[in-house]
Design brief:
five-stranded mixed beta sheet, single chain, alpha+beta, 36% strand, Nuclear Transport Factor 2, Chain: A
Length: 146
């Protein structure tokens, strides 16, 4: 990957979170796939476009800031932070996207972000979780699932 392709991808990535409506065809290859967090099915370009538009509809003031990025052997890693307001609650969440690039477009993107942290900002738990009790919590959750 050339430095020019890397910078073009980063700029297009940022632009798509600034634009209304976004145009993911600027960053996604027509046959690209986005793997959202949570193990749901990969999204094609149209599905990824709907997802971003849904985020923008729910959080009209959403802003994305790139904290760090690195590229190696055609894999672009982007650490990002998003902020915005849902209802009257300010929210902030961070994540990482790994993009397989062909030129300045992604053929595959895998997104990782803290869904629980965002959910807790919207619906704070009645009691904060003591990190020393995490093992007990996971054991109880496992029993509920079984």
């Amino acid at each position: 990957m050339s430095e020019q392709d890397n910078l073009a991808f980063i700029e297009a990535y940022l632009d798509n979170w600034r634009k209304t409506p976004p145009d993911l065809s600027e960053v996604f290859h027509p046959e690209g796939r986005l793997h959202p967090p949570g193990g749901s099915e990969p999204l094609d370009l149209e599905g990824a476009q709907r997802m971003v538009e849904g985020v923008r509809a729910m959080i009209p003031d959403v802003a994305l800031r790139i904290l760090h990025w690195a590229e190696r052997d055609g894999e672009m890693f982007i650490e990002w932070e998003m902020t915005g307001t849902i209802g009257d609650r300010p929210v902030r969440w961070c994540g990482i996207n790994r993009n397989t690039l062909r030129g300045a477009k992604s053929t595959q993107a895998v997104s990782y972000w803290d869904r629980l942290g965002l959910q807790e900002q919207l619906h704070p738990p009645s009691e904060p979780l003591d990190p020393t009790e995490l093992g007990d919590l996971l054991s109880r959750l496992k029993k509920e699932v079984e």
